[in-house]
Amino acid sequence: MISSFNLFRKEADTSLGWNLILVNDEYCVPSDYEVELTELSNGEKVDSRIYPQLQQMFDDARAAGLELFVREGYRTSQDQKDIMDERIQQYLDEGYSRSEAKKLAEQYVAEPGTSEHELGIAVDINADTSKCSSDAVYTWLENNAYKYGFIKRYPEDKTEITGVNNEPWHYRYVGVDAAKDMQEKGLCLEEYIVTLK
Predict the structure, then answer these.
(1) pTM for the full model?
(2) How far from each other are the two terminal CA atoms of the chain, in whole angstroms?
(3) What element of type H or E holds 115?
């Protein structure tokens, strides 16, 4: 079902392959998009195609002494809507007007239909802070995730391009070749897609 807000957005282009679908404020998840999911040990789910690389990355991070977990994996459009509604309500409770609350919420939460979590190829990774620091995990991911095909999707220096604040925990699968290329050239996904077209 396509909701009304998607009427103003284009459907994401799938011609570059499932791993390079660009979903953001301009492009929504294709209406016919289907995903086969694998359930992780903590109940979160991811696209089955990224599971082997994700598992290898986690195994290697743990071998390096880090304790980490997927806090968020796949979300349905309804899950995304619930998260957005909760965030808006938080701002309303703080005394913001509805339009202010919505604008503030959109800085941190993607509109339903525009979240990479709905593709199943994005994960929010957190540290088990009783065993290691978040900084240690984020630093390791920033230096190593590309080797497994994952990119830090919303880097601090690309906020103007991505439209999303720095999220050191949000990693997106793009494939090993694309991830290495983006790492070497310092590109975010939006920039990388342009180089391919």
Answers:
(1) 0.91
(2) 29
(3) none
